[in-house]
Design brief:
150 residues, globular, 7 strands, five-stranded parallel β-sheet, single chain, alpha/beta, two-stranded antiparallel sheet
Length: 150
């Protein structure tokens, strides 16, 4: 399963990527919110792991931007453990919210559950400007396969 982890802290994205790779995930990292949105458009990951506190754009803004063109599962992974923050993140389009630190097997389980639940991703080609998806229909379906643990 292809996953993107987005955090302005390079050490955090690299650690998350390393831990998820041990669970069999193919991980892309991004440390710049605007770049990350473009990567989601182009690489079409099956899930997004997103930090909230970033300069330039916060995680909720990134989440809303991704929701304009995709229903890819988004997990907020944040150090903030405030009910209002959790609620506003979910209202911004996130599918799940986990508080750092979280064990890698728990994060992997949440990713697998979300992808299994969604089954297929829908991207709106009209909003995927400069992407490789053909604009032959209102939406293009991208099959996903949940990670199966041994």
């Amino acid at each position: 399963m292809k996953v993107i982890t987005i955090d302005d802290d390079v050490a955090m994205t690299e650690l998350t990527a390393m831990l998820l790779r041990t669970h069999g995930f193919d991980v892309i990292t991004s440390n710049h919110p605007r770049e990350a949105i473009q990567v989601v458009r182009e690489k079409q990951p099956q899930a997004v792991i997103l930090d909230l506190m970033m300069p330039e754009m916060d995680g909720r803004q990134v989440c809303r931007a991704i929701r304009e063109f995709s229903n890819v599962p988004i997990i907020i992974l944040s150090a903030l453990n405030d009910p209002d923050t959790v609620a506003s993140s979910l209202d911004s389009g996130a599918d799940d919210y986990l508080v750092k630190p979280v064990p890698s097997d728990v994060l992997a389980a949440h990713l697998n559950r979300l992808v299994k639940r969604t089954g297929r991703l829908f991207m709106n080609p009209a909003k995927l400007a400069n992407s490789w998806l053909p604009a032959t229909s209102a939406t293009s379906a991208i099959p996903t396969t949940p990670f199966k643990s041994a």
